[in-house]
User: Fold this.
Amino acid sequence: MKKITAFIGCLAACAGAHAFNESDAAKLVQSYAKTVACALEETTYQAVKVTGAPRVDDMGDRYVVFWMGDIGCLGGSATVTPNFSLVETLTVNTPLVSVGFKGPVTGLVTVTKFSGGNGVISMEGLEFSGKEQTRIPSKKVKYIFNVDTGKFVK
Assistant:
């Protein structure tokens, strides 16, 4: 009996030893995206940790994951757009995709740089300026978005 108890205790300790990170958040959102979107670009899943301190339980950590896809599978031209999903660890070792997260709404067509920390995400990329042909954006833009307030930082 003591051996079984020790074995179960070791399993529990070993299972909690893996800290959830950006790579795990990206994989979780990739699985989520497959259920809500089409025309997914497999190489675009980029995650950044926006809140949380290094500790064993990861509780309270939040990540924002950038990905490209057609939410709702609408089809047609220009339906594959940048999307941002929030992953939260609300309980010990249980990360969840927050479906109620209202990410930044921008005119971004292409994201060239994505970073974050301290509750904000920063995006750089290209938008249409109104003078070019469809599908060839040329206007360089940068946005900083506060994840907590849901507003852009000026």
Summary: The beta strands are 37-38, 46-51, 62-71, 81-91, 94-98, 110-117, 120-127, 139-146, 151-152.
